[in-house]
Amino acid sequence: MNRAGRSTIAAAVFALAICLTASLNGLGQDERPTLRLVITHYGLDYRGLAAGEENVFQVRVRNAGPDTIKGIRLSVTAPKGWVTLIEPATLDLPGWSSASAEVRMTLPANAASGQRHTITYTAESPEVREVTAFGVDVRRSPRFWRAVGAALALLVVAGLILVYLRYGRG
């Protein structure tokens, strides 16, 4: 932590982890199953999700209690038009263990860059339910910038040819 009390993030680490704990109401303190949903994005560009491309990252689910939690269903909710897939979609977790699921999210190619959207993850079983949401930015695909670079290069070459044709060699 820095002096202002804010968490610092190393510039070289582009991972986002959100830890939340869910519990059941009405159970005794010692009987309470606990499910912890940790969302970690590996391989996700820190600038945001790429429009028009498949973005792949991991969701980590942790059972922070001693009892097995069976039939945990994982789901992801994204804005309309985004295609999402999470695998595996269902899992069982023994006490004090964790598992990862792969999330594949494809944004429409025409998704406006610079906009912030909310993505919601849910992990639920008959015993416990955990929901967490976070905002992600949409960025232009690297393909877009490659096309812009190629167009600029063509303009420079065309300009050089015009100068050569107009003024000749010497």
Can you give a write-up of this model?
The chain folds into 2 domains: 17-139, Sandwich (Immunoglobulin-like), CATH 2.60.40; 142-170. 15% of the residues lie in helices and 42% in strands. It has 1 helix and 10 strands; from the N terminus they run ββββββββββα. The chain has one helix at residues 142-167, and strands spanning 17-22, 35-40, 49-50, 54-63, 69-77, 83-87, 90-93, 98-106, 116-124, 129-139. Strands 1-2-4-8-6 form a 5-stranded antiparallel sheet, with no helix packed on it. The radius of gyration is 23 Å and the shape is rod-shaped.
The end-to-end span amounts to 64 Å
CATH homology-level superfamily of the largest domain:
Immunoglobulins
Q: Briefly note the CATH topology name of the largest domain.
A: Immunoglobulin-like
Helix proportion range = 10-25%
CATH architect. name of the largest domain: Sandwich
**Rg from Cα:** 23 Å
The global form is rod-shaped
| Strand percent estimate | 35-45%
Q: Structural class of the secondary structure composition?
A: alpha+beta
Number of domains: 2
Question: Can you summarize this structure?
Answer:
The protein is α+β, with helices and mostly antiparallel strands and 170 residues long. The chain has one helix spanning 142-167; strands spanning 17-22, 35-40, 49-50, 54-63, 69-77, 83-87, 90-93, 98-106, 116-124, 129-139. The protein folds into two domains: 17-139, Sandwich (Immunoglobulin-like), CATH 2.60.40.10; 142-170.
